[in-house]
Write a structure and sequence with these properties.
- The complex is a heterodimer of chains A (336) and B (553).
- Chain A is an alpha+beta fold.
- Chain A has two domains: 12-38 and 139-332, Multidrug efflux transporter AcrB transmembrane domain (Multidrug efflux transporter AcrB transmembrane fold, Up-down Bundle); 49-133, Alpha-Beta Plaits (2-Layer Sandwich), CATH 3.30.70.3400.
- Chain A has 13 helices and four strands.
- Chain A has helices at residues 16-37, 44-47, 62-71, 95-100, 107-120, 135-163, 166-189, 196-226, 232-242, 244-264, 270-301, 306-314, 321-332, and strands at 49-56, 78-82, 84-92, 125-133.
- Chain A has a four-stranded antiparallel sheet.
- In chain A, α1 (16-37) packs across α7 (166-189), α6 (135-163) packs parallel to α8 and α8 (196-226) runs parallel beside α11 (270-301).
- Chain A starts with 15 loop residues before the first helix and ends with a helix.
- The relative contact order of chain A is 0.13.
- Chain B folds into three domains: 2-25 and 380-545, Up-down Bundle (Multidrug efflux transporter AcrB transmembrane fold); 135-273, no CATH class; 276-366, Gyrase A, domain 2 (2-Layer Sandwich).
- Helix content of chain B is 56%, strand content 21%.
- In chain B, the strands form five sheets. In chain B, strands 7, 8, 9, 10, 11, 12, 13, 16 and 17 form a nine-stranded mixed sheet that branches. In chain B, strands 5-6-4-19 form a four-stranded antiparallel sheet. Chain B has a three-stranded antiparallel sheet with strand order 14-15-18.
- Chain B is elongated, with a radius of gyration of 35 Å.
- The chains are: A alpha+beta (336), B alpha+beta (553).
- Chains A and B meet through α5, β4, α6, α8 and α10 of A and α4, β19, α13, α14 and α15 of B.
- β4 (125-133) of chain A pairs antiparallel with β19 (371-379) of chain B.
């Protein structure tokens, strides 16, 4: 039987201050950069504009593509190599292009294509992908994405509130908010293009991290019942250690799948894969440090009292009253 | 153990059902054979690929109310939907989607379209056809000074606008008339043009310096290409439009043309604004090739339209009739004899395909309201195939890695988990096929990801079993306890994932919906494989070993 991190007794929580400083600094940096450089790098679908992916027979001269696009009357387009040397994208996302597409989204792409075909010849260049979005559709989609993010957070919150009592629930929800902030900061700082697929990645990270927290909290709850005269601090530490094997295995397989996507699934899915890979790290970090530290903080700040205990006894499907009593005894005692 | 037998039968039944679901099926599909779409039977795995994987075009259309207000958009879109559907049916696309979304937009999905520009125009062209008699009263000449004045008042001075255009126009005009002078009837017109040119020099107004008589047809004028935009803009001004006499209207020629000397110009027509007939009276339109005119569209009118057309054309013999499509003059032939129900639109050197497309949109009828395209996504079939190849490669690599990790760490139990994982993949694909779900590129990514996440349930169970064994329980009891204790965590994690998937489905568009669907299908399949299939495997193992052997986990 191979065992990694078996019967470990790491004191994870001791480092909570360091963890808090690192994560707060990272989030502050990310949020701060919003104030400095404005909106994140939204993709075409969110801002409106035109994206064209071009495949050339032979590696072309970037300057020639640029001058051709400009000669078509599209200034301010971004031209970048995409994957292979013969593949380029033209991104006309500037205000003028977006504005032009209010009357019809296809115009800019049509102009660019005509100019490119004239300049390079129809055999030499093929447009393999075109995305042209009018400004109105983009704005709606952007609103929808934020709404989806908000709604998922609220639904998770309600679920966690039902699933745990309010102390556990609050800790879990706050750590979810932390996860979202951290991921958004990461996306902003590393200038990852925010497309709908990336929003999907954020939501997946949210669900994934919630799982992780739930699994640790589940164990905390169970250990609170089992070992009554151990401090909450030690119980949480013990729970993290006990679930460490599971955490490492699950994160390993998830990361394996994510890395396979990152390295083999091509450039279209790259932003998605990067955000997912970061998300796995976030999940580990936040369930071990953020959620657990928050739980301890909340339990200390609002110790379980007798009234609460009685309420909990009446309410089914929540931790049994005895455990609550035990928890109370522990929280009353000095933690370490 | 009867219970075990039932379980094995259920698993086997699911496998068989899945294989049946995924077995390449013969379906009747509209496929392309030698460049033409035909209905044919093809054999394929019944998994529907999204536009981003198979290539194709997605269009979102909205009512274009920039020129005129549309009272009931929803109702107008319903009627447009029918027209578009008919056009696409005739255009020939395998499994097209044409649907109204909300009250204000139509989405059109055309898989496998390889000429996006053409498809785009077939869908969005208004195809509003009118036949108008050209003006013979020199109405434009008479109002030119007033047009100039109005344009100047609106800020379109000749000094700014025609400084460059002026000379270019005069050069253009002279040589144009040089070319026209070969025509027998051009002498009278060239005098008019001369006077127009003189007027231009004298007044230097926007209109007087840039517009000259076209020569061939009465009411036809030419504008040098450089000045077209300026004049178009001037003609948008209400004060300028007010100068045009009632009952007359100005319309542009369809395309920029080139004179013999290489000058570029565009035609402008002064027309009687009341159409003698419109496309509504059309019952049929067919493309043909005419020995003289090249590719043409012949049309048939209904009996009432035919009667009116005959009367009107008889009344206007020897006059010119402009055929106006979507506010642009396609051609302006002279009426030689009364025309009845059957007529012809010559297209001036258009390709046969253009004639075909025009006939198609005329047959399907005009769009009741002008539509504008608010979103186009177009993916080439080769790029789609490339995405599939890469996605499948990533899937196999992910599975390989997961298999190595699981067997490397959990040994025998890991093998059981891997067997369960294989069933997971099979079941998930079968569920997707069963619900006729569309597989998109993000969906494929979600599937690869779910392979990594799906083993989590098994990991939870195995870790629990290990703990129970450590606690001194017998193998049999440890397995039972392991499954029992891991249950709540597994259900929790499934619920949170399904919830975020549901939100994504609600708010996402096409490709992201595919992601949500595979995510949800994956979670459901993983619940089944982890809780039921793995359990059964363990029970089978226990029965084989009679609980005597230590579990390799």
């Amino acid at each position: 039987m191979i065992r990694i991190f078996h019967h470990t007794t790491f004191d994870f929580l001791r480092h909570w201050r360091t963890a808090a400083i690192i994560t707060a600094a990272f989030i502050a940096l990310g949020i701060g950069s919003f104030a400095v450089t404005g909106a994140p790098n939204y993709s075409i679908e969110f801002t409106g504009g035109t994206l064209m992916q071009l495949d050339f027979k032979t590696p072309p001269d970037v300057a020639a593509i640029r001058s051709t696009v400009e000669s078509a009357g599209v200034t301010g387009a971004e031209i970048t190599q995409y994957g292979e040397a013969t593949s380029y994208t033209v991104r006309a996302q500037d205000e003028a292009s977006v504005e032009e597409q209010a009357g019809g989204a296809e115009g800019v792409a049509g102009k660019i294509k005509t100019a490119l075909t004239l300049r390079f010849g129809a055999d030499e260049v093929t447009v393999v992908r075109t995305e042209a979005v009018g400004p109105k559709v983009g704005a709606e989609l952007r609103r929808g994405a934020w709404l989806a993010l908000l709604l998922t957070s609220i639904i998770s919150l309600i679920y966690l509130a039902i699933r745990f009592d309010w102390r556990f629930g609050t800790a879990a929800v706050l750590s979810l908010v932390h996860d979202v902030l951290l991921t958004i900061a990461f996306i902003k700082l590393f200038d990852i293009e925010v497309s709908l697929t990336v929003v999907a990645a954020i939501l997946t990270v949210l669900g994934y991290s919630a799982n992780d927290t739930i699994i640790i909290f589940d164990r905390v709850r169970e250990n609170l019942k089992k070992h009554r005269n151990v401090s909450l601090y030690d119980t949480v530490n013990r729970s993290i250690n006990e679930t460490l094997g599971r955490s490492i295995m699950t994160h390993a397989t998830t990361l394996a799948a994510t890395l396979a996507l990152l390295f083999f699934a091509g450039p279209v899915l790259r932003p998605f894969s990067i955000v997912m890979a970061f998300g796995v790290v976030v999940a580990v970090f936040s369930s071990m440090y953020v959620a657990s530290s928050l739980l301890i903080y909340i339990e200390r700040r609002y110790p379980r009292d007798t009234d609460d205990k009685n309420k909990r006894r009446e309410a089914p499907a929540v931790t049994a009253g005895k455990a609550a009593q035990a928890a109370k005894a522990r929280t009353a005692a000095p933690a370490r | 153990m009867a219970n075990l037998k039932t379980r094995l039968l259920i698993i086997l039944g699911c496998v068989i059902a899945s294989v049946v679901m995924l077995y390449p099926r013969t379906v009747i599909e509209r496929v392309k054979r030698d460049g033409v779409f035909v209905y044919d039977t093809v054999k394929r795995v019944p998994l529907k690929k999204g536009l981003d994987l198979q290539g194709g075009m997605h269009l979102t259309l909205e009512v274009d109310d920039s020129r005129q207000a549309v009272a009931d958009k929803s109702e107008a879109l319903d009627r447009s939907l029918r027209v578009i559907r008919q056009r696409i049916d005739e255009f020939g696309v395998a499994e097209p989607v044409v649907q109204k979304v909300g009250d204000d937009r139509i989405i059109v999905e055309l898989p496998g379209v390889d000429d996006p520009e053409r498809a785009q125009s077939v869908v969005s062209e208004a195809a509003f056809l009118q036949f108008l008699i050209t003006d013979e009263t020199q109405a434009l000449e008479r109002i030119i000074p007033r047009l100039d004045e109005a344009a100047r008042a609106a800020g379109f001075g000749a000094a700014t606008g025609a400084a460059g255009g002026d000379t270019a126009a005069r050069v253009g005009v002279t040589s144009l008339f040089g070319a026209d002078s070969t025509k027998p009837d051009s002498s009278a017109d060239s005098t008019a043009a001369d006077s127009a040119a003189t007027a231009a020099v004298n007044s230097r107004g926007l209109f007087s310096s840039n517009i000259a008589q076209g020569g061939l047809v009465k009411g036809q004028y030419v504008v040098a290409a450089e000045a077209v935009t300026q004049i178009q803009n001037a003609l948008l001004q209400p004060s300028v439009l007010a100068v045009i006499p009632p009952g007359k209207s100005l319309k542009w020629g369809a395309e920029e043309q080139e004179g013999t000397g290489g000058q570029k110009f565009r035609e402008l027509y002064m027309l009687d604004s009341k159409p003698i007939i419109t496309g509504e009276s059309l019952t049929d339109a067919r493309p043909t090739t005419d020995p003289v005119d090249g590719n043409v569209v012949t049309f048939t009118l209904n009996s009432e339209g035919g009667r009116r057309f005959r009367n009107e054309t008889a009344k206007n013999l020897k006059k010119s009739m402009a055929i106006v499509l979507d506010d642009k003059v396609v051609t302006a032939p002279t009426i030689q004899s009364p025309i009845g129900r059957n007529g012809q639109i010559s297209l001036g050197g258009a390709s046969l395909q253009e004639a075909q497309d025009l006939a198609l949109v005329l047959r399907a009828g005009a769009l009741p309201v002008p539509l504008k395209i608010t979103e186009v996504r177009n993916i080439g079939a080769s790029l789609g195939q490339d995405s599939i190849d890469r996605g499948v490669l990533a899937l196999f690599i992910a599975m390989g890695l997961v298999v190595v990790i699981m067997i490397g760490y959990y040994r025998f139990a890991g093998m059981l988990a891997v067997a369960a994982l294989m069933l997971y993949v099979l079941y998930t694909l079968a569920v997707l096929a069963g619900f006729n779900a569309v597989i998109t590129l993000p969906g494929l990514a979600g599937f690869v990801l779910s392979v990594g996440i799906a083993v989590d349930a098994n990991v939870l169970i195995f870790e629990r079993i290990r703990e129970e064994i450590d606690g001194g329980k017998s193998t049999r009891l440890a397995i039972d306890e392991g499954f029992k204790h891991a249950l709540s965590a597994i259900v929790d994690s499934s619920v949170t994932t399904i919830l975020s998937g549901a939100v994504l489905y609600q708010y996402g568009s096409g490709p992201v919906r595919g992601f949500a669907v595979t995510l949800i299908a994956g979670v459901v399949a993983s619940l089944f494989t982890a809780l039921f299939v793995s359990r059964t495997f363990f029970m089978l193992w226990l029965q084989q070993t009679r609980g005597a052997k230590a579990l390799s986990i």
